[in-house]
């Protein structure tokens, strides 16, 4: 039994080492990815549930490596975060997303809000507000057309610092959304303390809404909570007409998901926006 335990332990250690090596390999490849043009953005449309108009896009980072092919953000973003690379990459994401939104605006396409995901490390940088202001100035995108998505984990840090950062961003007209709402561990008290604009219901609740009574209760509670605090609420991961109807009945404001549009490249999104202007 002892030998068996040792074997299990050795196999476990080998698996860990294997994983660490994989991560190191991926990190080495990720380091030059931005400079080699392997990173790009996809855009997923967001719709107003009442009018069914496109009101926004979420920018989602993609990495296509010449040999490995497409690597999921679920795999490379944690590596970028641990290594600190996310600061440089995240900066580029904001710039590229704002540049694209401004280009669509200049082309006379329907005005939308561009939502960009921010990692905790980016949010904690003292130069965040300044660099976002610089990007808005460079690209000419009005602040009110930019939305930053933060996870609950961002909001548990130094309260005063978080309050000030949010205030400075909002002075530029920027909107703030709490992403993956309902999955974090933080208390709800931060919703009063931090002047966020929108809650994004995590897709796990949306997915189970039709079959699981407790998920639909959570969705209903989040929408009520948001509205009672004067916040908007968006549901993500909406995949069916049934989920859409249920969300409409619960007076959810906006929806995003495969039922309405998958993440797509800039060209496809341009066509989607264009098709909306023709009556
Ligand atoms: P997220 O911010 O929660 O983004 C939503 C994810 O759900 C995206 O996965 C999107 O493609 C996927 N999705 C959208 N609609 C549906 C649907 O109807 N059904 C299902 N099953 N999935 C749907 P993606 O693009 O793989 O991104 C994964 C995560 O990577 C994101 O989760 C976000 O946390 C992170 N991420 C992506 N881009 C960035 C970025 O530029 N910066 C940072 N910091 N994180 C990013
Ligand atoms: Ca997001
Ligand atoms: Ca999310
Ligand atoms: Ca997520």
TrEMBL record:
Keywords: c-di-GMP, Kinase, Membrane, Transferase, Transmembrane, Transmembrane helix. GO terms for molecular function: cyclic-guanylate-specific phosphodiesterase activity; kinase activity. The keyword Ligase does not apply. Residues 23-277 form the EAL domain. This is cyclic-guanylate-specific phosphodiesterase. It comes from Marinobacter profundi. The lineage of its organism: Bacteria, Pseudomonadati, Pseudomonadota, Gammaproteobacteria, Pseudomonadales.
